[in-house]
Specification:
This protein has about 130 residues and is mainly α. It has six helices and two strands, in the order αααββααα. It is elongated, with a radius of gyration of 19 Å.
Amino acid sequence: MQKRNEAISLSDGEWKIMNLLWEEPPKTVMQLTKQLDRETGWTKHTIITMLKRLEAKHAVYHEEGEKAKQFFPAIPRSEAVLEETKGFLDRVYEGSLSMMLHSMVSAKRLSKQDIEELYEILQKAEVENHD
């Protein structure tokens, strides 16, 4: 597994593959093809191409198995989610979390449970930032 210096950006299709790898690694090309067939209709050649791209991004790596290559995630889900979130905030809200939340509040898209969860997160952040 190689080290990366830059953030990884994943396409929607790459997220589908990564989610399967994070759920239960390792996976072979045939396992991924079978699991994604109903949702995507992708052939094994499409899966191979996407795995090559993910390897080039250092998001996955493979080991030789007895019959087929075994693919593993090279990054934790939490790292990919954080990078995707930062990218989304930068693209859509100029990097402003408060602008995004204001947009959600204005559109009445936050449930009572969402608001309670946000309060808990903010209270925890406040405690952690005062240490």
